[in-house]
């Protein structure tokens, strides 16, 4: 199965059991504290998220998969290059994972192909594939199946791959022997906690999504809280800071697939260039990309915040002109963020 996985672009395959009861108290406490923000789907299925056999009746084991997403041509000093982007206020920063093809599409099709290969070897079996698309405790399953351990930023970490990878699962009605979990190796390091621009990592392995830039720019539909806008800087879709600060990511692996190579316009473009996209161009440029799901309105909202921060930092008249061009945008959400941005300089 591991050999088939490698042929399909997966770097690691593991197996976990279905008893995740030890994770239930932490999940419920996080939800009760409201740390999931507007992500109602996080609470909608109750404890099915921690009970695979209730989510998919008949499930006896979970096959887990890791797929690295660092682009094939990532430079040896890619971390330094990403930090440097933050020092260029006019550059638009899209999280590394979202610069290529939508990972949901890539993983889902390949997990299905892995299931078909397994069925060819053992005969038909019940299964369902997931990749960040259903109430699944992905990091918990990854930790239990030897894929890695839960870092203090809550992402899965691997000693030889860092955290720059996606996770996928296949729920199966086969009783497979589980893999051994790996031990944690964060030690006393708090780099991810210390670097978070909005202090969203409130403690080891605890994130308040309501403060997280990834949540604010992707999941959050309304106005971005004014007090958090300056900390967003030029990040317009997601945030990689906690991963860039993690020492283990010096071992991050390049993807063997072309799918995660950056698309034109999503790696190194300016805020002004992207802010000029009309809705038709946005839809055309983001076809097959995870970015499309936020829609043009939120795209402009995020860019307006970035431009406001750039205006404060540089006083660039070109930035001011770009903002003024959308001062009367049909969207009240966009207009409010543009007005805020113009007030920054």
Q: What does it look like?
A:
With 345 residues, the protein is α+β, with helices and mostly antiparallel strands. The chain has one domain (2-269). It is 38% helix and 11% strand. The chain contains 16 helices and ten strands. The protein has helices spanning 2-7, 24-32, 41-44, 52-55, 78-86, 103-122, 138-144, 191-195, 213-219, 229-232, 241-244, 271-275, 279-285, 295-314, 317-324, 332-342; strands spanning 12-16, 61-68, 93-94, 127-130, 149-150, 156-157, 165-172, 201-203, 206-207, 235-237. The strands form four sheets. Strands 1-2-7-4 form a four-stranded antiparallel β-sheet, with helices on both faces. The chain has a two-stranded parallel sheet with strand order 3-10. The chain has a two-stranded antiparallel sheet with strand order 5-6. The longest helix has 20 residues, at 103-122. It is globular, with a radius of gyration of 21 Å.
Number of helical segments with 4 or more residues: 16
Question: What is the helix/strand order?
Answer: HEHHHEHEHEHEEEHEEHHEHHHHHH
| Unreliable runs | none
Q: Please provide the count of β strands.
A: 10
Average pLDDT over all residues = 97
Q: What level of helicity do the residues show?
A: 25-40%
Return the domain count.
1
Secondary-structure-based class equals alpha+beta
């Amino acid at each position: 199965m591991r050999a088939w996985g490698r042929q399909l672009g997966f770097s690691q395959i593991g197996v976990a059991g279905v008893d995740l009861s030890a994770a239930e108290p932490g999940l419920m406490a996080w939800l009760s504290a409201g740390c999931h923000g507007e992500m109602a789907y996080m609470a909608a299925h109750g404890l099915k998220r921690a009970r695979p056999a209730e989510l998919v009746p008949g499930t006896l084991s979970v096959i887990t998969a890791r797929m690295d997403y660092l682009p094939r041509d990532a430079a040896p000093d890619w971390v330094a290059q990403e930090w440097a982007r933050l020092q260029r206020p006019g550059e638009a920063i899209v999280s590394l994972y979202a610069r290529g093809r939508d990972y949901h599409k890539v993983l889902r099709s390949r997990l299905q192909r892995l299931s078909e290969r397994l069925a060819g070897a053992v005969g038909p079996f019940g299964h369902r594939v997931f990749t960040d698309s259903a109430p699944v405790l992905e990091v918990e399953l990854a930790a239990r199946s030897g894929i890695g351990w839960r870092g203090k930023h809550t992402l899965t970490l691997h000693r030889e791959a860092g955290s720059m990878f996606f996770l996928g699962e296949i729920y199966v009605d086969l009783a497979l022997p589980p893999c051994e979990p790996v031990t944690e190796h964060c030690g006393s390091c708090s780099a991810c906690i210390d670097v978070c621009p909005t202090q969203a990592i409130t403690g080891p392995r605890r994130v308040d999504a309501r403060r997280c830039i990834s949540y604010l720019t992707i999941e959050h539909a309304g106005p971005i809280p004014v007090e958090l806008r300056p900390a967003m800087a030029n990040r317009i879709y997601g945030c990689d800071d906690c991963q860039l600060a993690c020492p283990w990511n010096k071992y991050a692996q390049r993807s063997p697939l072309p799918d995660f190579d950056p698309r034109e316009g999503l790696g190194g473009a300016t805020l002004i260039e992207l802010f000029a996209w009309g809705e038709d161009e946005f839809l055309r440029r983001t076809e097959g990309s995870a970015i499309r799901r936020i829609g043009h309105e939120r795209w402009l909202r995020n860019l307006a915040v970035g431009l406001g921060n750039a205006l404060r930092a540089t006083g660039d008249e070109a930035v001011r002109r770009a903002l003024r061009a959308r001062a009367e945008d049909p969207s009240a959400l966009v207009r409010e963020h543009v007005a805020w941005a113009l007030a920054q300089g």
